[in-house]
From TrEMBL:
<protein>
    <submittedName>
        <fullName>Uncharacterized protein</fullName>
    </submittedName>
</protein>
<dbReference type="InterPro" id="IPR036291">
    <property type="entry name" value="NAD(P)-bd_dom_sf"/>
</dbReference>
<dbReference type="InterPro" id="IPR052228">
    <property type="entry name" value="Sec_Metab_Biosynth_Oxidored"/>
</dbReference>
<dbReference type="GO" id="GO:0016491">
    <property type="term" value="F:oxidoreductase activity"/>
</dbReference>
<keyword id="KW-0560">Oxidoreductase</keyword>
<dbReference type="Pfam" id="PF00106">
    <property type="entry name" value="adh_short"/>
</dbReference>
<dbReference type="InterPro" id="IPR002347">
    <property type="entry name" value="SDR_fam"/>
</dbReference>
Length: 354
């Protein structure tokens, strides 16, 4: 486990010969904000940083705090905000199309966006597009960002530069990916049918857990489809940001009251957490990574550049959780069969959203 000083020292070694392009979906608050600020400081502002989020006012304040390059060579860098409600897949697609039209590459795509109910364990429902309102930002938007912006990540790799996809959620727990009711439609119907607060809470908690497992599947899918890049699912731990501590509501209220009182003992500051996450982002060339809250590697595997992913064969491990294309992965909850089914479901659902 790296200490904060070790993580900062590792980050300090990042000095690329090119101006890096980093896109932070969820960059106007929390760890997305912290990572963007840390990268801006590390590069002394010589980076093209794109903050994607809903809060333009917050973005303006964040960008105003970025250091600005000095000296004669001031070309190539930019600090900008792109408005997007990640609860809308149409909006996410539109933003991705706009970025593809004007960016030539993306070196770092960091996904931290969460929705209005992201930390609620007592509320659940659907977005206007019919998606579970926990999974819409925790999983579906991240899938769309990854797929739609992958050509720009691959372009960075083709130029011999960093090319890294990172999603920040609850990596390392080895939570199994569901084999049915991927979008929790049946679970929500049951909650409505019984009209019980307990049923609603169970569905909300199930959605939060599913989001973690699905991010394992997302990263596994893109890591094996594109073995020339780095793809990481990382655990942020508990960070002292607005809304970072999960709300227990009436169901777990007393327990979470105690947790809030102990918050400073069990959490790290946003800046500290960002340094650990940045360490995980910069400390990778290519391959599949599961990382912990300190940016340390829980497990990793590098497939050969010409590797052809398989998710539908009849190998002995195809349906075994914790294996990725026949390779055992610590802290990983997917199986080839469940990942393939999840991807098929995801594509089918997204195709219906126009």
């Amino acid at each position: 486990m790296p200490t904060l000083a070790a993580a900062e020292a590792s980050n300090a070694g990042f000095a690329p010969s090119y101006i890096p392009v980093a896109v932070f979906a969820g960059g106007t608050s929390g760890l997305g904000q912290g990572m963007a600020e840390a990268l801006a400081r590390q590069t002394k502002g010589r980076a093209h940083i794109v903050l994607i989020g809903r809060n333009a006012e917050a973005a303006e304040k964040i960008i105003a705090g970025f250091p600005k390059p000095v000296g004669e060579d001031k070309s190539g860098w930019a600090h900008e905000f792109v408005a997007c409600d990640a609860n809308s897949m149409v909006a996410v697609r539109n933003v991705c199309a706009e970025l593809r039209s004007r960016l030539k590459r993306i070196n770092f795509l960091v996904l931290t966006a969460a929705g209005p109910r992201a930390n609620s364990m007592t509320e659940c429902g659907e977005t206007a597009e019919g998606l579970d309102d926990h999974l819409s930002t925790r999983y579906f938007s991240r899938y769309v960002f990854s797929k739609e912006l992958m050509p720009l990540i691959l372009s960075a790799r083709e130029q011999g530069q960093h090319a890294h996809l990172m999603t920040v959620q609850g990596a390392g727990f080895g939570i199994k990916i569901a084999s049915s009711d991927f979008g929790l439609e049946e679970a929500r119907r049951s909650s409505i049918k019984f009209l019980g607060r307990v049923f609603v809470s169970i569905t909300a908690m199930k959605a939060m857990v599913r989001g973690v497992a699905y991010n394992d599947g997302l990263v596994a899918w893109f890591a094996t489809q594109h073995p020339e890049i780095a793809a990481t699912h990382i655990n942020p731990g508990q960070v002292r940001t607005v809304g970072a501590v999960i709300e227990g509501g009436w169901l777990l209220g007393p327990l979470f009251w105690v947790i809030k009182r102990l918050r400073n003992l069990i959490t790290v500051s946003q800046d500290e957490g960002a340094q650990y996450m940045l360490h995980g982002l910069l400390d990778a060339d290519r391959g599949f990574f599961i990382r912990d809250m300190h940016g340390d590697i829980v497990s990793a595997h590098v497939f050969s550049p010409d590797y052809k992913a398989r998710f539908t064969d009849d190998s002995p491990t195809a349906r075994k959780a914790g294996y990725l294309n026949g390779v055992p992965i610590q802290g990983y909850g997917g199986s080839d069969a469940t990942v393939a089914a999840l991807m098929e479901y995801t594509e089918r659902v997204l195709a219906e959203i126009k």
